[in-house]
Amino acid sequence: MAEPLLRLASLKKEYAHGWPRRQVTFSLVADLAVPASSIVGVMGPNGAGKTTLFEMITGSNRPTAGRVLVAGRDIHRVRYAERDRLAIHYHQSYQVRRFRRLVPSALLQRAHSDYPLVHLFDEPQFNTQDGYIGFMLDFFRHLRRQGRLVFVCLHPTARYHIDIMKEICERYLFVSGGGVAEADDFAALAARPAVRAYLGALAA
């Protein structure tokens, strides 16, 4: 059986402070698999951990526990310069996120990939003028046709953000309350009370 394109295996990230008794101030857990190429919509309140999740997927933020497997390869055991051949994180204006180097790269594995398999777009800035939205949606679909996995994370502030996600996304993730919930379509996502509260009038 082929490995899922992306597998988050009992993934967990915690931040804590204080001494000698440390207090957890942030916690996020995720355990899910995306078997094949698709376009996945991601939403959630500010500070819920969406960017932290993306950073763990691309290997720039080490999880407290669990693993991120891209086509069966643990991205946190791959050489730093080759991690973006497995998964790449575009933050806001398509600036690629960087990562800390804690282990000498020579001790890590090769990626065995020439082009990113997973593309994570973190709150891309959609320009409503001059057909820019159409261009970006075509680009996301092009990546999917090439067998890539595309994540599009939006913080909806206008109706057209919801329309974009409904048009291109095949499944959804909602990051909230320290966890990641999955939904097969937007209607199933919006049926969740936490999502309705998050979207407000946009959920109608």
Q: In what range is the share of β-strand residues?
A: 25-35%
CATH architecture: 3-Layer(aba) Sandwich
| Number of discrete domains | 1
Mean pLDDT value:
88
Which helices and strands occur, and which strands form pairs?
Elements: E1 6-17, E2 23-34, E3 38-43, H1 50-58, E4 65-70, E5 73-74, E6 87-91, E7 95-96, E8 118-122, H2 132-145, E9 149-153, H3 159-168, E10 171-176, E11 179-183, H4 186-190, H5 193-199
Parallel strand pairs: 3-9, 3-10, 6-8, 8-9
Antiparallel strand pairs: 1-2, 1-4, 4-5, 6-7, 10-11
Give a written overview of the molecule.
It is built from five helices and eleven strands, in the order βββαβββββαβαββαα. It has helices at residues 50-58, 132-145, 159-168, 186-190, 193-199, and strands spanning 6-17, 23-34, 38-43, 65-70, 73-74, 87-91, 95-96, 118-122, 149-153, 171-176, 179-183. Helix content is 22%, strand content 32%. It is globular, with a radius of gyration of 17 Å.
